[in-house]
Amino acid sequence: MDTLRTLQQKLRAVEKQSADAKYPTGLIVDLSGPQGNIYALIGMCNHIIRELGLSPQEREEYETELNAAEVYKEKLKVMSKWFGIVFTGLED
Asked: Which residue, among 35, 33, 45, has the nearest Cα to 77 in the 3D structure?
């Protein structure tokens, strides 16, 4: 269970990432569950892309950047940069 202080920190993180994101969604995803699987995350982002109606050029730009990210944490950073997603449950 999160404390009030922890929840406030998470909220500030969401607000900052949303403000900095290309397409802010304000989503918070717990990576410790099945939704933390990279393929589930890619599917979620593809759904966001369709819902937002991104142009083929923007979709290609996103996919190029995502594919250039070689490890899990780098891919998460790309998703956060594009969609303002805050990821929790990942041990540093």
From this structure: 45
Other Cβ atoms within 10 Å of 1 Cβ, number: 4
Q: Is the model's pLDDT at 1 over the cut of 70?
A: no
State whether the Cα torsion 24-26-31-34 is positive or negative.
Answer: negative
**Cα–Cα distance measured from residue 41 to residue 30, given in angstroms and rounded to the nearest whole number:** 11
C-alpha span between 42 and 39 (Å, rounded): 5
**How is residue 2 annotated by DSSP?**
-
Is the dihedral angle over the CA atoms 50, 54, 55, 57 positive or is it negative? negative
Sketch the domain layout of the chain as residue ranges: 4-88
In this prediction the pTM is 0.82
Contact in structure between 17 and 83 (CB atoms under 8 Å): no
> Residue 12 phi/psi, 5° resolution?
-65, -40
C-alpha radius of gyration, the chain, whole number: 13
